[in-house]
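pasting for the record
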Amino acid sequence: MSGEVNTDTSSASAAAPSAAPADAQTAGIVPQRTAPLSVALGVVSGLKNAVLPAAFVIFSSSSNYAILIALGLAALIFAVSFALGYIRWRKLTYTVGVEDIRVESGLVSRTARSVPFERIQDVSLEQKLLPRLFGLVSVKFETGAGGGEDLSLSFLTEDEGERLRQVVRERRAAETAPVAVDGASEAVTAQVTPQEESAEALFTMGPRRIFIFGLFSFSLAVVAVLFGLTQQFEFLLPFDLWDFEAWEERLIGQSDALSSLGRSAQIVGGVIAVLSLIILGIATGLIRTALREWDFLLEKTPRGFRRRRGLLTKTDVVMPVHRVQGIKIGTRFIRYRFGWHGLKFISLAQDAGASNHDVAPFAQLDEIAPIVEASGFHLPSEDAEWHRAAKKYRFDGALIDGGVFLLISIPVAIFAPPYFVLIPLVLAAVFAFAALYSWQFKRHALDESQLMSVSGLFSPSSMIANRVKLHSVEISQGPIARKRGYASLDFGLAGGSFSISGVPLERAREVRAAVLETIVSKDFSELESA
């Protein structure tokens, strides 16, 4: 049970003024609205809806009054956006009650959501560029449900966002103590205000680290964005983007011009083109990394892990330690050669749409180890007992990976020039060899408290789960695996997935028995709420 309540009233009742909840009325608490500036923010954000219609009118109409018509259309869209935004703002209220936070919204169909304080893990604040200019924040009440189930308010002033976060923490820290009133013993709630939290910095990324991270984040995403923009605004271009004959004439003309310059000039031109593409990819990676990771700071506080980052969009997220269900350590091909890895926490909550929380996106292993220890896990020890996948699984994988390209080589040999058949044959050999060689890097280990898995040849990744926090264990076998005597282990993990493939059947049964014994031996009521 999430503790949330959804109610819908009829359209007739929705026209009446919103009444405060009964508990709020008795406590004298008045529902509040979000910041009035959020109406203006919504209008500014909605102006983009008027750009395309106005541009279409200007460039498609032959009338002398095209600009006036476009301005009138934009003004109409602006007025409608303002009216709808104002109505939504008037009809959205939130109430900080004694036991919960209640949000009511809707014009025709009223909806009320109530989240008890005991279900709120913490409050996250987010500031995108435009709200930041207005001094506004989005407030998200983390309940552990994840995704769209978390309660959020957009937009509040920065002071109000901080006040709400402090109120939630105080209510969760409230203690009930019996006191004597006129000789009778009554239970009253004493608000205990937590002391100023002491924070221990676990991981930071300054400008130099972010610059190095950006160099390793080569991306040509800007090319795809530009291509998408040309499709959207094709009518603004002075030429037909899809006129292939015109493009062919242009390319032939450029080719003739290059040919007249000689082979050296052609080589120089090709090198310049490649370097331009590389520079564009590096610049894109640097910009994206700086925008996302600027002023990255991970702290350990009494409330849990607190992560702050962002240049244009600033985020402030707190995740209690007990919500960490598992950890993932990953890297990439080039980063791995320089010792760089990334650490993520697996939890029920989402991190900007992602399923896992980045807590050390670009770090060395000696920087990751203290974070792992602080989360209640530990990296594999040198004497860990590792087990590899079944040798039959290794052979079957190589046969399947190489066999796909061998099948492709048959039609290539029939319909393509003779030497073209070498391409799928070489790929078949490469993939088969990779499957055989990577087998030794795919392994797992089980100790008293953790289950660990490592895989990957060129960019190895590790996953560690707490045996107590696993929910289930399943042994699955396909037709080939059943015939060959190996299986896949699938573990139920809140907020993520954990599976180990190609495990010998006897070993799979041993792991399942050991993990199930750990699960059933622990009373989950003794664990903190996840």
